[in-house]
TrEMBL record:
Belongs to the DadA oxidoreductase family. Residues 6-375 form the FAD dependent oxidoreductase domain. It comes from the Bacteria. This is TIGR03364 family FAD-dependent oxidoreductase. Its cofactor is FAD. One of its GO terms (cellular component) is cytoplasm. Keywords: Flavoprotein, Oxidoreductase. GO terms for molecular function: oxidoreductase activity. It holds the Pfam family DAO. It comes from Flagellimonas lutimaris.
């Protein structure tokens, strides 16, 4: 019975790990299998911010539940959560109007936010250029994480305190259903058995169910990010999102002025070509992470995005960042790109195979913010527990 579980979760990223977390919360016996020696995909290569404020109304509910879960875990075990809030900085009257409208929407949703004057922004965020900012909108409940350490600490917590069984170096090659069990087999012909199997990794989905994968509407986004050298005697709290973020994030699509604002944008800018919106976040070592860009390809043509960093994109982002915040140094110590899959026509890809195999992937840029809350509802649905209200 040692290799038989109520739930086998395939994929050790943030989406898979929180599916495991909520299955454990229901008192189930859970095994999480990960193809690599440790998680190293999109979960570890993202910006590291939890910002329900940027989500549409539906997903903000998941994001706010995620915030609650993150904070609850952090109170018991350090997973690198820091609550310093999120600010959106408007650079002109159009963006300021969108902030006013988003403030009203969130007031109706009972989600705390506060408009900041230009002077309040300048006092709160050192180095912010007065020729850039006109106003800000601050969300005090939101948090940042250190993505390259958080997932490891979260899994350590689940193993030590919740009884999770994790098997690394476990590349899955087949899932075969019998009447009662799904046999999950790896490349070494080792097996684990689950009453339910949940596939939360796009690569495993592609290998296990290639025809379903090819018929999906999944696409891949490639994001370039950078990290400066540590900033001496400088502190920048929370997530700093700027005007291009205001024009991009889903939450603002619900603002009455959004359509007209988008109509006025230049169509052939480098910002649009590379999908750039400038963000800042200070890491634990004092360095500042900045980015990011977005380039897209169909999931079955991921090679079209290339495997190199485009230095023209990085240089463009640095020059634009300098127009917003004067950092003590813009010397870069690290550059990387992350890739995540998302759906063209839906929020997330979900498909059930043979009743007991559930594919859940393509959460896109919502992963760090939305996975904890979404997984709670999805596990309740898969295991037919009472309806959970978020």
């Amino acid at each position: 019975m040692d290799n038989k579980y109520d739930a086998v979760i395939i994929g050790g990223g943030i989406l898979g790990t929180f599916h495991a977390y909520h299955a454990l919360e229901l008192g189930l016996k859970v095994c999480l299998v990960e193809k690599d020696a440790y998680p190293k995909g999109a979960t570890t290569q993202n910006f590291g911010q939890v910002v329900p404020s940027g989500m549409n109304t539906k997903w903000q509910k998941y994001g706010r539940e995620s915030l609650r879960i993150y904070k609850e875990i952090q109170s018991k075990f350090d997973i690198s959560i820091r609550q310093n809030g999120t600010v959106y900085l408007a650079s002109n009257e159009e963006e300021e109007q969108l902030l006013v409208e988003l403030r009203a929407i969130n007031s109706g949703n009972d989600y705390a936010s506060k408009m900041l004057t230009k002077q309040e922004c300048l006092e709160k965020y050192p180095g912010l250029r007065k020729d850039y900012v006109v106003a800000g909108l601050f969300f005090p409940e939101e948090v940042t994480v250190e993505p390259r350490t958080m997932i490891h600490r979260l899994q350590e917590y689940l193993v030590a305190q919740k009884g999770l069984d994790i098997k690394f170096d476990f590349p899955v090659v087949s899932c075969e259903s019998t009447r009662e069990w799904v046999a999950v087999r790896n490349t070494k012909n080792e097996h684990v058995f689950g009453r339910k199997v949940i596939v939360c990794n796009g690569s495993d989905f592609k290998n296990l169910y290639p025809e379903t994968f090819l018929s999906s509407d999944l696409e891949v986004s490639k994001l370039q990010m950078m990290q400066t050298k540590p900033q001496e005697n400088y502190e920048l709290k929370g997530s700093i999102l700027t005007g291009w973020s205001i024009r991009r994030y889903e939450a603002f699509h619900e603002c009455p002025s959004f359509t007209n604002v988008k109509k006025n944008e230049p169509k052939d800018s480098l910002q649009k070509k590379w999908g750039v919106h400038i963000l800042f976040k200070q890491a634990a070592d004092g360095s500042v992470i900045l980015g990011d860009s977005h380039q897209y390809a169909d999931a079955n043509k991921i090679e079209d995005l290339g495997y190199d960093l485009d230095m023209d994109i990085d240089n463009f982002m640095i020059e634009e960042a300098k127009k917003i915040i004067d950092l003590p140094t813009y010397q870069i110590q690290k550059r990387w790109y992350g890739m995540y899959s998302q759906c063209k026509n839906s929020d997330i890809f979900q498909k059930t195979i043979e009743d007991n195999i559930h594919i859940v992937t393509g959460i896109g840029g919502k992963g760090m913010t939305g996975s904890a809350g979404f997984s709670k509802k999805n596990i309740a649905t898969i295991f037919n527990t009472q309806k959970i209200k978020l």
